[in-house]
Write a structure and sequence with these properties.
Length: about 130
């Protein structure tokens, strides 16, 4: 997170063109502390960096993108861990397998915006009816 606790948007993060990243590199790119990344690995089973013989984590680009999406869901959109898991499940069911494909962040933002608009419209309808 940046200084005012806002989540860095995925489009603001610059992911270098590399095959593998260390946990400290991922921490720097995503602005998520290493211990949080390790915790997220336990919570989000599809976030599995490969391990070297010595046990060092090696994140791939798709892992870094997933970290950015998880961060966005938790910090910007205020999902709980369980809510973020459900949201990622929805993306998977929509044909976007988080463990296999890169996430289309624009589409995820659009879907969230549409859901929020639907809730607001429903709230307005209820206000008008009462």
């Amino acid at each position: 997170m940046n200084e005012n606790n806002e989540a860095q948007s995925p489009s603001e993060a610059v992911i270098p063109d590399k095959l593998f990243f260390t946990i400290s590199e991922v921490s720097g790119i995503t602005q998520v502390k290493s211990y949080i990344l390790r915790y997220w690995e336990k919570q989000f089973k599809f976030l599995k960096p490969v391990r070297s013989m010595g046990g060092q984590r090696s994140y791939r680009k798709k892992d870094v993108e997933m970290v950015l999406l998880i961060k966005k869901l938790l910090y910007a959109e205020k999902f709980t861990i369980a809510g973020a898991k459900n949201r990622l499940k929805e993306l998977k069911e929509a044909g976007k397998d988080p463990s296999q494909l890169e996430i289309n962040f624009k589409e995820a933002e659009f879907i969230a915006t549409v859901k929020n608009l639907k809730k607001k419209i429903e709230s307005l309808r209820e206000s008008i009816d009462s």
